[in-house]
Every structure is written in C-alpha cells, then in structure tokens.
Write a structure and sequence with these properties.
- The chain is of the alpha/beta class.
- Helix content is about 45%, strand content about 15%.
- It has 26 helices and 20 strands.
- The strands form 3 sheets. Strands 1, 2, 3, 4, 5, 6, 7, 8 and 9 form a 9-stranded mixed β-sheet that branches. Strands 10, 11, 12, 13, 14, 15, 16, 17 and 20 form a 9-stranded mixed β-sheet that branches.
- The termini are far apart.
C-alpha cells in the first residue's frame, strides 16, 4: 500500500507551513510521498513555498516531499490533477496507491493516516471519509462524514465531504475522471457523484474526527459566498447535474445555495450561434485542380458528385480532377468513369506509379503494403508531384485543392472557395482548411469525452418521462465550444476543462421523445469507436472571411489549397519509418518544410469541409500499431514546432545541440501524451462500470455490446502494449530524419514524372 499526500497551495506560505505541512510531518504513520502543488500567481509566494518545503525536508529526510507547479487549469482542481499526472510519471501502480488530499489551510490530527490506512486494509476498501471539526470564528463543530455514498445526497448538498477528509484508491479516483476542471467550487461533491456512479466502490465512514477544516469568515476562501469562483462553481455544477435531479431535488439545491452562498439561478439568454452568410466579392474565375487519393468508389462517390455540382457555382470556371489509384478495383474505376458530368478526371494509374518507381530515383524505395496500397505519405507524395507538375504546365494559373476521399462539400466550403482569388492576391502560397463533423484524429483520441457525454445523457434521459419531447440544448454546447477549442479531443495540450463537463445530445427532430432519444443514443454509441461523434461534432462557428481569418500555421490536414506549384513540385510528404511502419504527420512535415526551408507563406483559413466517420465494421479492435504511429508522429511534430516557434527564421539545417533540444521536446510531449492516454484508459473503463451499474443495462443489448467493446479494447494490457511500442524512437533516428529533410526535398525537387 503506497500512500501519497497531495496539497494544493496558492499564495498562502504561512498557512502551508503552520497547518497542512506541519500536520502531515506530525503523522504517526508517515506517507510514502508528499506532493505540494503550487498554484501561486507571484514569485515571492513560490520562493517562500520552496524554502518552507526544504526546511521540513531537512527536519525529516525520510519523507519524500516534492514541490511542483500547477501544469493544468488554474485553481484547486487543476492543481490536484497536476499531482496525479506527476504520480503517473513515476510509474506508480494506481490499484496499489492511495491518495490523501489536504488543503493548505486545513490540518489532520496525528493519527489520520494511521487510522485511515488500517481501516482500508481491514475492510479491503477503496475509499474512506472521516468525521472532522469545522472551525468557524473560533467555534468548533463536529461534522460527520456520510455513512454511505449516495448520488441523491450529493446532488442536493454536501453530506460531509470536504476534500481533505477523503482517502481514496488512485485507480478508483482515475476511473471517476479525477477532478472536473470546469467546476471551480463544489469539486468534492462532483467527484463523489462520479465515484458513486462507478457502482463497485467499497466505502466506509471513519466516525472519529481526524481533520480540522477552517472556515474563517475573515478571509476569502474557495467556498466564500458571492465570490466569482463560488458563483461559477455553483452555476457549472447546476448545468452539469441538474438534468438528473428531480423537481424536488432542484428546489432543495436552489434553496440551499441561496441560503448559504447568496446565489440564485441567473436568467441566462445564451445567444444563438447562427452562421452568417459571408459577404463574397468574387474576383475573376477559378480553375480548380483537385487531387485525391482514391481507394473505394462508395467512399469517394459523394465527393465526386459534389465536385461536379461546383461547375454551377459562380466564380468557378472549370474543375479538373486527378485521382491517384491506391488499390482501386477495376469495377470501382469503371463506376467512376461512367459518372455523368463535365469534370475531366485524370487517373494516376498503378502502371504509371510502377513506371516512376522503376525509373525515377526518388521513388525507387516506394513500396505497397500487404493490401497493395501505398501508405498515406508515399501516396500523397506521388499525387502531389504529378499535380504540381501539371499545375506548372498549365497556362491558366489553376488553384490546386488536395482533398481526402472521405470529405464532403458544404455551403461554407463553397463560400470559402469563392474567396480564394483574394487570398492568393494577398501573397499566400498555401491555405490549410478545417474539418467539420468528425475529428481527423484517430477515434481512440476522442472516445473518453464522447463516453462521458453518453453516460450523462443516458442518466438525463432515464430521469425523464419517456413520452416527453427532448429539448435541444445546443446553445449550452456552443458555449463550451467557444470556451474550449479542443472540446472534442481527449489529449489536448491547450486545456482540460472539457474532459468531464458533458455535451448534450441534439435530437434528430423537433418531435423526438425521450424514449426515441434513448433508443438512438444506445444504438449509435458503438459508432464512437469509428470516429463518428454523437455529441461533440466539430462545428465551425467562425463567421469571418478567409482573408480575415488567415493565421500562420503548419497544422495541415486533409483539405489544403495550393497557389504556388513549388509547394507540390519541390516538397515531398516526408515520414519516418520505425520497425517497418510509417509514423503519421507527414502532411504537417510537408507544411513545415515549405514554411521554413522553402520560405513560403502558409496560413490556416476559415474554409471548413465535412469529414465522415468510418463504418461500424472498422472498429472491432484497437489497432495498436496505428495508435503508435499517431502518437510518435504527433509528438515529433509538437517537439519540432516548439523548437521552430523559438527559431522562426530557421531553415531546417540543425546543429547537434539543436537536435538534442528537439529530441528533449519530443520526449516531453511523449511523456505528457502517455499520461493523458492512461487517464483516458482508466476513465473509459470507469464509464463502462458506471453503465454496467445502471438498471437499464440488464435489458438493453446495445449497452451490453458497448460495455463488452470497452472492456476488450481499453484493457491495462493494451495500454502497456501501446506504451512499449512508442518507446522505440531514439535520438539517432530522429536526428537522421531531421537532417534528411533538406536533402530529400532537394532530391524530390529534381524528379520529373510528367
């Protein structure tokens, strides 16, 4: 049994010293480790905290005490979660580790850890909460911890949990999702609701008061009435949990918070997020060269139909389509050839590709996999070379559009295309568009947040009358979209508040009943594993023109416009190969080379395109190797761009010292990503247990399938396999790849195939 104490502190060095730390060092049974997470907003407090900790360490060198900075959301929740990240980096076993949380202004009695650990071991528990003394204006009150964990009790009020009286198994804590960083106060109640929802947690109350909780009225605390923090916390708690409250519970909640905290439910009119039609000043006519890697007719046929319809669009003169056959069958090719329309389609056939592999030096090492397909990097390199040289030979100055075959064109896409001449006129060489609907990331990177939504929505539906019409809460979702740009992404480096705050299901029609919604939600839940979003589709709420929205970026995806043919003809899609497989992000490396070596003007712009998820038969198993490729590619890209942001004039010719910096950046991102992925694996397993504990589970076969799929794929063994497979990239391999970028690009530039 490993015991780790976590203390969050902010701008209160004296309280940290006199209360929390002193009480931990005075414990009869010492913890294995103390982690003090510093959220102070000034250097003076941080320096004092370091000195205080060093002083305690000198008194008792046997206790490992660490001082770390909050790396997450400002506030207590982010601080506590930062400590969990730090613990996971130390390779602790969550099932054998217990977390004891303490506020910097509270203190434990000397036998707190002793009695807590003895109780855990005696009864084989996952969690205990002790009674405590509440110290308020020099008065001491005995407060009791709950005798059992009840969601209904926590919905209405706080039955005796103050955070600092919680002693919990780390695996249970992680399966509950840790602290919600979108809730600024009431964090302990929210956590306990999610722990209770797990269904399996063995809990016991310690009836002895073992903690002193100071509720001084002469200083501002997180729970002080009328503070912005408290009001925001109460409001977000209400938005998150009120859907599963009965009318009586809602009234009790509102009465309590009004009495204790002077807070009332505000009348909020969230403005409707409506897309405005962009003002389009069409200048001249556009000749589009569209390049697509094509494998299946059923996937590409909707896109080809929509491209044909663009002939009727004002400002578009003509469209020429270039299809690179990537194991396209003869039957599928005939279907494409027989499509009606004006568009000229040029096939880059297997025979043409084989001829270039035999005769062009740059392509000699290209090869197909067991399915007779090129990897995305090699396929896109061949396509771009052909289209780039065709672009150079054309006297009509075409604009090249490189697209993935599973994209679909929307009205917003067309509006953006009509503005392309203005963007070209402004001196842009490459314009990178954005996705709508499905994320371009592998589905595993967004399953956690989608399943969090699934559980909250199901609890909401089951609390309503089945015949009621389900309301559309899209406005609440849009408010979160505007707050958290990575709202759809489990592994965000930008923010964390989106992970445990649910998005609400959008009914398919105005007349959809709760009963219909339950059926749709449960039946469609399995699609999450193919990348189809049920509750967090990518939405483009940006109404700016593409010229106004243009920002520097090398974050390329499957929708890219090229105005400068050299971007295609002089720069390949380079990728690293590790143990016989390619790692991802070659499209972003292409952008990096064009931006830094070719010195081109690369912009991200507000041109969205609809991206579909995969069919259900595609996700019976997690593809460990594909996940490895994505992780390594994204961390390489992040490490490289971190370096380039600090060296904006770099030309990609690296010194040995610079290569070391990039590799260290890569390792930092890899560690961070694997910690976040571990959080996701635990949380997804926890959601599986919460679903299994619902009464609805016994009679719903769709829920059975969902739980079985989660348990099969999100096992500890699968995580271990992923981790083992990503720890293979050496500094030598990374350096060799980075040093090859200029050489390979110049070699590619000299190649001619048209």
């Amino acid at each position: 049994m490993n015991i780790i104490v976590v203390i969050a502190t902010k701008n209160r060095p004296e309280l940290l010293k006199q209360r929390s730390l002193r009480s931990v060092y005075a414990q009869i049974n010492s913890p294995d480790q103390i982690i003090v997470v510093d959220d102070s907003d000034n250097k003076k407090s941080k320096d004092e905290n370091v000195a205080i900790i060093e002083g305690f360490k000198n008194e008792n060198k046997k206790i490992d005490t660490e001082h770390i900075l909050n790396q997450r959301t400002k506030g207590a929740a982010g601080s506590w979660n930062s400590a969990i990240d730090y613990i996971l980096l130390q390779k602790q076993v969550p099932e054998k580790t217990f977390i004891a949380i303490l506020d910097d202004d509270d203190e434990w009695l000397p036998d707190y850890l002793k009695l807590s650990s003895e109780c855990i071991q005696k009864y084989l528990l996952d969690m205990i909460a002790c009674d405590f003394y509440r110290i308020e204006d020099k008065q001491k009150y005995h407060c009791t911890a709950p005798t059992k964990l009840s969601v209904n009790d926590f919905l209405i009020g706080n039955p005796g949990i103050q955070g600092a009286n919680i002693f919990v198994r780390l695996s249970c804590f992680m399966e509950a999702g840790c602290f919600d960083e979108n809730i600024q106060s009431s964090t302990d109640r929210d956590l306990c609701i999610r722990i209770t929802d797990l269904g399996y947690v063995k809990y016991k109350r310690l009836a002895t008061p073992l903690m002193k909780h100071y509720a001084d009225s002469d200083r501002i605390r997180m729970s002080s009435p009328n503070t912005d923090t408290k009001k925001a916390g109460l409001h977000n708690f209400w938005l998150k949990h009120s859907k599963r409250m009965s009318d009586d519970q809602k009234q009790k909640y509102l009465d309590r918070v009004k009495t204790l905290f002077k807070w009332e439910l505000p009348v909020v009119n969230i403005p409707k997020q409506e897309r405005k039609q962009k003002r389009i000043d069409i200048e001249g006519s556009i000749l589009l060269y569209v390049g697509i890697i094509c494998s299946e007719y059923k996937v590409i046929s909707p896109l080809l139909t929509q491209l044909e319809e663009l002939h009727n669009t004002k400002g578009i003169n003509n469209i020429c389509i270039f299809l690179l056959e990537n194991n396209l069958s003869t039957i599928d090719k005939e279907k494409i050839v027989n499509l009606p329309g004006k568009s000229k389609i040029t096939f880059i056939t297997k025979e043409m590709q084989d001829r270039w592999i035999d005769s062009v030096d740059y392509f000699r090492n290209f090869s197909r996999n067991k399915k007779q397909m090129f990897g995305i990097a090699q396929a896109r390199t061949i396509l771009q070379k052909y289209v780039g040289q065709a672009m150079k030979l054309s006297p009509d100055c075409p604009i090249v559009w490189i697209l993935d075959e599973d994209m679909q064109i929307t009205e917003e896409t067309i509006c953006g295309i009509q503005e392309l001449p203005q963007l070209k006129k402004s001196g842009v060489d490459i314009a990178i568009g954005k996705y709508e609907f499905s994320s371009p990331n592998p589905p595993v990177n967004g399953i956690r947040v989608q399943l969090v939504d699934f559980l909250y929505n199901l609890n909401w539906f089951l609390n309503q009358k089945s015949s009621e019409t389900l309301p559309d809460l899209s406005d609440e979702n849009n408010e979160l979209i505007n707050k958290y740009t990575d709202y759809y992404y489990d592994l965000s480096r930008k923010h964390f508040g989106h992970l445990e705050h649910p998005f609400w299901y959008k009914p398919k029609s105005d007349k959809e009943t709760v009963s219909d919604s339950i059926e749709h939600l449960c039946k469609d839940a399995i699609k999450i594993f193919g990348g189809t979003p049920l509750t967090r589709p990518l939405l483009n709420l940006d109404t700016r023109s593409i010229v106004d929205s243009a920002t520097d970026s090398v974050n390329r995806g499957g929708i890219t416009f090229i105005f400068n043919p050299e971007a295609l003809d002089a720069t390949p899609n380079l990728n690293m190969e590790i143990n016989g497989t390619d790692i991802r992000r070659s499209d972003m490396v292409w952008s990096v080379i064009n931006r830094y070596y070719r010195k081109m003007n690369v912009k991200a712009v507000n041109i969205p395109i609809w991206h579909a998820g995969k069919e259900s038969e595609c996700f019976a198993n997690l593809d460990i190797y594909k996940i490895r490729e994505e992780i390594l590619g994204s961390c390489l890209y992040a490490g490289l761009t971190d370096f380039l942001k600090l060296n904006p004039e770099h030309s990609l010719k690296f010194t040995d010292d610079e290569l070391v910096v990039v590799y260290k950046n890569f390792k930092k991102h890899l560690e961070h990503r694997m910690v976040l992925l571990k959080h996701s694996f635990y949380r997804v397993r926890g959601i599986s247990k919460s679903i299994h504990s619902l009464k609805e589970y016994a009679q719903n076969q769709d829920l059975h399938k969902l739980v079985a799929l989660i348990n099969k794929n999100f096992s500890k063994n699968n995580y271990a396999l992923i981790k083992e497979n990503v720890e293979t990239l050496s500094i030598f391999a990374l350096s060799e790849f980075l040093n090859s970028m200029q050489i390979q690009s110049d070699k590619y530039k000299r190649s001619k195939i048209v």
